[in-house]
Design brief:
Layout (H helix, E strand, L loop, with lengths): L11 E4 L8 E4 L10 H15 L15 E3 L6 H6 L3 H13 L3 E6 L2 E8 L2 E9 L5 E4 L11 H14 L3 H4 L3 H7 L8 H8 L16 H5 L3
Antiparallel strand pairs: 1-2, 3-7, 4-5, 5-6, 6-7
């Protein structure tokens, strides 16, 4: 990891990352004021990012399709391919050639749908969270990949029909304005008056109504 204060790098070693109870993290930096340094923390975040993107084929990760977090900001085909397999993509394409997911609801950056495949109905939810990533839901038993064939099919259907930024069109701006902190309007005259010292509060009349910035400019 590159140091954020010096032009050098520190080697971070993460051992047994697939066994949380026995996992160990070591860094070459001299930090000794706590259990973990900033380089170790950054390395763990990067490792989690790589695991979420399914970049470790040898790592036996089990996914629960009831809720999987998909880290992509829009419907991106390259990211979808990383989070699935060639077989899942082929199956999703086969399903979409025969049928389409029925969209039950599409609002507030959330799509609820139902997909019929192989004689079964699968309820699906794709929803953007506060970090602009996707929380996804399906009832199938796919455990090897973050995206099952049914979620993949729905993402591909929305991408084809509406484009990669479809969820931006479902954004509820009125709701976000309501949830944001209201700003109290203060008259400009009040701000200007409050920023100036009283002319009687200084012993030097020539400095009356002068701000620190204006004082620098005095001839």
């Amino acid at each position: 990891m590159k140091s954020d204060t010096h032009a050098n790098f520190y080697k971070v070693t993460i051992s047994k990352y697939n066994e949380p109870a026995t996992m160990s993290v070591r860094c070459q930096c001299p930090y000794n004021l706590g259990d973990i340094c900033r380089h170790e923390a950054a390395a763990l975040f990067q490792l989690q990012e790589m695991l979420d993107r399914n970049q470790f084929d040898a790592f036996d990760t089990q996914y629960d399709q009831q809720h999987t977090l998909i880290k992509m900001k829009s419907i991106d085909l390259k990211t979808i391919k990383l989070l699935t397999s060639n077989h899942i993509l082929s199956e999703a394409d086969r399903i979409l050639r025969k049928t389409q997911a029925v969209i039950k609801s599409a609002k507030d950056e959330k799509v609820e749908a139902e997909l019929r495949a192989d004689g079964k109905k699968y309820p699906l939810i794709l929803q953007r969270n506060e970090e602009r990533n996707f929380d996804t839901h399906c009832t199938c038993d796919e455990h090897e990949h973050p995206l099952c064939v049914h979620k993949t099919a729905l993402f591909l259907q929305l991408l084809t029909a509406h484009g990669p930024f479809y969820f931006d069109t479902l954004r509820n701006w009125d709701k976000e304005k309501t949830n944001s902190s209201p700003l109290t309007a203060i008259p400009l005259a009040t701000i200007w008056k409050a920023s100036l010292p009283s002319p009687t509060s200084t012993a030097n009349p020539s400095c009356a109504y002068s701000t620190p910035l204006l004082k620098k400019w005095r001839p």
